[in-house]
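Hi W., the magnesium ion complex you wanted:
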Amino acid sequence: MSSLQVNNISKSYQLDNKELNVLNDISISLDSGDFLTILGPSGCGKSTLIRCICGMETPDSGEILIDGKPIDGIGPERLMVFQDFNQLFPWKTVEENIVFPLKLNNVSNNKVELNEIAEEFMDIVNLKQFRNAYPNQLSGGMRQRVAIARSLALNPKVLLMDEPFGALDAQTRAILQKELYQLWEKFKTTIIFITHNVQEAIILGSKIIVLGLMPATVKFETTNTIPYPRMPETKEFMSLWKELYGHLETKRF
Ligand code: ADP
Ligand code: MG
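Structure:
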């Protein structure tokens, strides 16, 4: 059974008494364990699409199914990691940021068990020695690692990521890409990752979709069979890059 199905969703916003058609008949089908990267020009509707899948927005038409069941608002089986470095609870330490959502979602009432889960995930993102640090004592890359760890600790069916590395410097970005890929290999969580960076889409995605200009439609989709580690200087990487780039439309505002 497919773990995620987006069937013919469309969405408009009202802006200045005019209808702004943002998503137009989008369909996506993912199997459990797929890593989908979605590329699209700025302002085309990428965040709107992922917010619909998360349940933060409701499509005007169409449906979104997880394991065959329609989603109903937000839920712990679909968690989102944002671009913003300020998505953690600023008054909680690294450890508390991981433990709190576990408590909230009744993963366990047992303090020892909760601490064990937090321990495992702090270790996975290499932040054990920062367990007592507050978010404002961490770099952007470290904060994104905590955001990823606290989501994965809840064992979601789908991890949604809206340009999570978009505000990082190039070097940190490359490190986090590698770490995320390794986490995906370990946990095989189904991931949807939005980016407007073609290279990032190829490095991470087992499936890649290109959206067109607003109102967004699926313009192109492909599976990515380049073996890992994916090196941009190889022939197959360059040829996929050219193909994807060719499908990416741009518009001047
Ligand atoms: P992307 O993430 O691809 O840059 P978005 O999904 O954020 O694009 O936005 C797509 C379009 O929808 C933009 O024109 C934006 O102004 C508009 N939009 C997004 N959210 C709202 C909203 N809540 N109300 C009205 N318009 C919105
Ligand atoms: Mg966006």
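The mean pLDDT is 95.

W.
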